[in-house]
Design a protein that fits this description.
Number of strands: 2
Radius of gyration: 19 Å
Shape: globular
Number of helices: 12
Structural class: mainly alpha
Distance between the termini: 10 Å
Largest sheet: 2 strands, antiparallel
Oligomer: single chain
Length: about 300
């Protein structure tokens, strides 16, 4: 049985419906509407998302990271119409001021209600409060610029945040995979919307430097939780790829094939670092997400078999 067929069987046996529909959308001519229908089950009346959509956090309440994760699934399904109920809900939540720190003009990375839910230790709300490094704020600002009404106050807010975020990013250039990913999303959304409200030349220079410096070249460490080529060169981020990464990408294709587990999945290179039994449910969900991402990466580099 080849790599893809083993992966396919794992997905059908273990993935939650949302990820199964994503798999079918990409590999079996499935429907984007099915992805959106499954995604809508995680949306709350206030327009935000919870209920474990972010697999490491079982908080049912609407949280910024849940909304960010929803926007990632929307991208996976090819986007949506501005008048789509899911989009209207997201914009409603982002307009509400919920989980938004007005002083820093950022959505909270972690929220107090996480402490009443089963989640990984890094999602617990710390005594000192949430951190402010534009994760997920930069990505959410980009989403607003792409999908909000350009005459709305929310749109103006998104543009203002995008400018501040870009200025911080260019000066700070943090070497952290999740933050870098949010700033990649910000650039992509602004490009798609035809409105880049910052110095794109300097921004791209910094972003490409971070990608180059972040990718681990030590193949023996790729089983750890470290940035690999696939961390950055996903479907919507392929524009950041260049030929200088070709050998690394080919090497990762080989790694993906050789590291596949007998059941068709892939090991999750992190744990919750607590005794919450919900981790074992989340682990299977995450394995499905990783498996789909790995199959997409193989396909992007003509290595899928």
């Amino acid at each position: 049985m080849n790599t893809f067929e083993k992966a396919r069987r794992f997905i059908y046996r273990n993935a939650r419906p949302l990820d199964l529909y994503v798999f079918r959308y990409y590999f079996e001519n499935g429907s984007a509407d099915d992805v959106m229908t499954a995604l809508s089950a995680y949306q709350n009346p206030d327009g935000g998302f919870g209920w474990g959509l972010e697999s490491d956090n079982f908080n049912p309440d609407s949280i910024p990271m849940g909304v960010w994760k929803a926007t990632e699934y929307i991208k996976k399904a090819g986007g949506l119409r501005p008048d789509d109920p899911i989009n209207k809900g997201i914009l409603k939540y982002l307009s509400s001021g919920s989980d938004f720190d007005a002083e820093h003009e950022q959505w909270l990375n972690t929220v107090p209600s996480n402490n009443s839910s089963h989640c990984a230790v890094w999602w617990k709300y710390p005594e000192g409060g949430s951190t402010f490094e534009y994760n997920p704020t930069a990505a959410l600002a980009g989403y607003i610029i792409k999908y909000a009404d350009k005459q709305s106050e929310l749109y103006k807010k998104g543009v203002r945040i995008a400018k501040s975020a870009a200025n911080w990013f260019i000066k700070s250039a943090p070497l952290e995979r999740h933050i870098a990913g949010c700033f990649m999303s910000l650039y992509n959304y602004c490009t798609e919307a035809g409105n880049i409200p910052f110095d794109s030349k300097e921004y791209l220079k910094k972003l490409n430097e971070i990608i180059d410096r972040s990718i681990c070249r030590d193949v023996s460490r790729w089983g750890e939780y470290i940035p690999k080529p696939s961390t950055f060169f996903t479907l919507d981020n392929k524009k950041f790829y260049s030929e200088k990464f070709k050998e690394l990408c080919i090497a990762e294709c080989g790694f993906i094939k050789s590291s596949q587990l007998p059941d068709g999945s892939y090991s999750v290179p992190w744990q919750w670092a607590n005794d919450h039994k919900e981790w074992y449910i989340a682990e299977n969900w995450i394995k499905a997400e990783l498996t789909i991402d790995n199959m997409l990466f193989l396909r992007e580099f003509d290595a899928l078999e």
